Amino acid sequence: MSAAVAAGWMVGTFTVIHKLISAGLTAFLAGGILLNTFKEELPTERESRFSAFAIGCIAYAGLLLLA
C-alpha cells in the first residue's frame, strides 16, 4: 500500500491530469464511499437511526459549502 501512495505521488508530480478526469475520479471515489457507508451504517437487520445519519449528512454538506 505504501508503494501505491508513492506511485500516486510520482504520477501526480510528473504528469498533468485534465480537470475533467480528476473530477470524474473524485466523483467515483465519493460514490464508492457513500455506497459503503449506506451498506454498513444502514442495514435492515440492526436498529439504525436514519435521522441521525441524515442530520450528519446535512451538517457535513453545510460545512463543505461554507468552506
Distinctive features:
single chain; 67 residues; mainly alpha; 3 helices
Describe the overall structure.
There is one protein chain. This protein is mainly alpha-helical. 79% of the residues lie in helices and 0% in strands. It is built from three helices and no strands. The radius of gyration is 17 Å and the shape is elongated. The model has no long low-confidence stretch (mean pLDDT 85).
Distance between the termini: 31 Å
Name the structural class: mainly alpha
Tell me about the largest β-sheet.
Answer: none
Strand content: under 5%
Count of beta strands = 0
Report mean pLDDT, rounded to a whole number: 85
Helix content: over 70%
How many DSSP helices?
Answer: 3
Specify Rg, calculated over alpha carbons. Answer: 17 Å
Dominant shape: elongated
**Low-confidence parts:** none
Order of helices and strands: HHH
Secondary structure layout:
Elements: H1 2-14, H2 19-41, H3 50-66
Summarize, please.
The chain has helices spanning 2-14, 19-41, 50-66. The chain has 67 residues and is mainly alpha-helical.
